[in-house]
Design brief:
Elements lengths: L2 E8 L1 H5 L4 H14 L3 E7 L6 E6 L3 H14 L2 E8 L2 H8 L2
Antiparallel strand pairs: 1-3, 1-4, 2-3
Length: 95
């Protein structure tokens, strides 16, 4: 199943409501699961990004739909990368 890493930055709204961040994260995980996206991990981070998600789903479209729903709430902006394990990467590069 394809995996994705999503980097998160709080918007001004999200920063103002930071104390509700963990509750919002739980709500997102529940909504994502109903949409067919597994939230494998959620982290709050320091540095350039405020958080990171590890997601998996049968299709990229499903993941991107869940993330657009998340962004539409207005608390975060996201940047998503498809993640490849060694076997998947070797298949692409011919190793």
């Amino acid at each position: 199943m394809p995996k994705y890493i999503t980097l998160i930055r709080f918007t001004e709204q999200g920063a103002k409501n930071i104390k509700q961040s963990t509750a919002r994260a739980r709500s997102f995980a529940e909504a994502a699961a109903k949409a067919g996206v597994k939230v494998e991990a959620q982290y709050w981070t320091t540095g350039s990004y405020d958080g990171a998600l590890v997601l998996s789903a049968d299709s990229e479209r499903t993941v991107l739909h869940a993330l657009t729903e998340l962004a539409a709430v207005g608390n975060v902006r996201t940047e998503t990368l498809q993640a490849l394990d060694a076997k998947e990467f070797e298949a692409i590069v011919g190793g």
